[in-house]
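Researcher: For the annotation table, I need structure tokens for long-chain-fatty-acid--CoA ligase. Please keep the output clean. Sequence:
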Amino acid sequence: MDWSRFWFWSWSWFWSLAAGLLVAHVLQRFCFPFFWKDLLFLSKVIRYGARLELFKLTARVQTVLDRFVDQAQRIPDKPFIICEGSVHSYRDVDLRSNRLANAFLQQQRGPQRGSCVALFMSNEADFVSAWFGLAKLGCSVAFLNINIRSKKSLLHCFDCCGARTLLIGSDLLECLDGVLPSLLENNIQVWTMRSHCEHPQVHTLPDRIAAASDEPVPADLRAASSLKTPTLYIFTSGTTGLPKAAVITHLQSLKAAGGFWAFGATERDVIYIPLPLYHSAASLIGIGGTIELGATCVLKKKFSASQFWTDCRKYEVTIFQYIGELCRYLCNQPKTEMERDHRVRMGVGNGLRQDVWREFLSRFGDIKMCEVYGSTEGNLCFMNHVGRIGVVGRSNFFYRLLFKYDLVKYDMVKDEPVKDPQGFCQRVKQGETGLLLAKVSALSPFFGYAGNKQLTEKKLLRNVFVKGDVYFNTGDLMAEDQDGFICFRDRVGDTFRWKGENVATTEVTEILGQVDFIQEVNVFGVEVPGHEGRAGMAALTVRPQFTFDGHKLLEHALRDLPPYARPLFVRIQEVMEMTSTFKQQKFQLVQSGFNPSTISDPLYVLDYQQNSYIPLTEQIYQSIICGERKL
């Protein structure tokens, strides 16, 4: 053998291979810089999705509750929920939920398998115990927004989901004093987590829980045979009208529970949840994600910017949930020497503005902010697993194969998608802003709203690109750049977001229209510098022979609207502007904002100190713009 030739060819092959790998690496870094991150993330998504698909081949689905019961057996002594300084292990919550389930089983008129129970509770460990205890009985649970206090809205919530039982938290009983008679008249059984109640028809639960067994109720009661079985109802102020009960199936719950894991969280993480549990972010992603990991969560009763970092240090928090407004509040706090002294490595949430994002990282350290895009009832989710500032998610060729979505041209003036001569929607070009539509399919189903097929159908667009296709209308304007990063631009229709809540303009319009001096009212949201979302504004016309009364208007809003839905600004018009299709004109009003120097109509601003809507002067306007006046 010619060894010299052998070694020559060996070295040639080695150096060729090395050069090829180097070139491939360079090409990957410059042409496909996110290849490995995308591959890792998609592999996780596919693995998790495959697990859910396997449930379709079996007679039983492993639900989030089943996963919790398994974790309670596997890690019984591990802290599950830390709330108000109290530590509740997986075993503690499991046993207490067993007692609650057994307490209801002993009641002749108690909730039964297949019935729906409404939960009206603040953030506390018993929220989760009640949720799981009722689920162990085979009940679906409706999470009521605790800001909803009006009789009409609450009764509407019960009608939507068919709940005939209400469980009230111990700290919220007085909030419903004016509504309780109506609930009882409608044969709704009312229970409270308070040990003593003077109202004879309101039943107390703690005494019954204390006397009940902590043995598990039969597992057959909670068994689910289909991923599409409804398990929760979460109320959302969608595009129109009163609160709507979004149907949450086991499929949606399980998908949400995988969020933290997909972002790289582990069982060693401690997750801080300052968001309300009646929203899907805290309950489905937060609690469900904690259970999926077998991790620990710190449940905050109410978000406090001044206590946030103290809590993070005290409980060694590594991940926190947020909405954009929350991060802005933290950035507005006075700087301290301790604000970078923490173990937080990741934030998971939505609605974070670019400027706040950059300031947050600059002040509080290298924290990976993972934006999640998706609505409670929607069938599409984007996840910014790369951590790129200012984007809500990332897409690529493989993602589009799994999840079908499109951005279509939208006419802001006419408030509708742009159609071609054949009546089909038109896709926008890369980088252009368009309305986000998500295709409805077996892989991405849309379950709609309970008790209202008309509203469910209203969220769907049919014959979008070809006859027979069906898409979910997100109501959001988005843009996708050449690298596949997706940015949120705006909301369309009759909804805007303020203080982390969706405000349905038609509901606010209906309530304000009851004021005697108002002839017509048009509610919309306007941008305020330095604030997330849009602040509520009501353009209204005054009835003949009447005058505008700011005190009376605020009194009415205080009584019938939650704080986030009360208009901050009022604009008095002589004639209400209409579109060519006889809809109220919002686009021009939104664009003109609330600047008194450029608007000739009289403007007013909400003033809690004077308990009225007062004239919006140039001085007040400047104090709002500069951030001196709190909204």
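Researcher: And a one-line annotation?
Model: The chain has three domains: 54-369, 378-491, 495-625.
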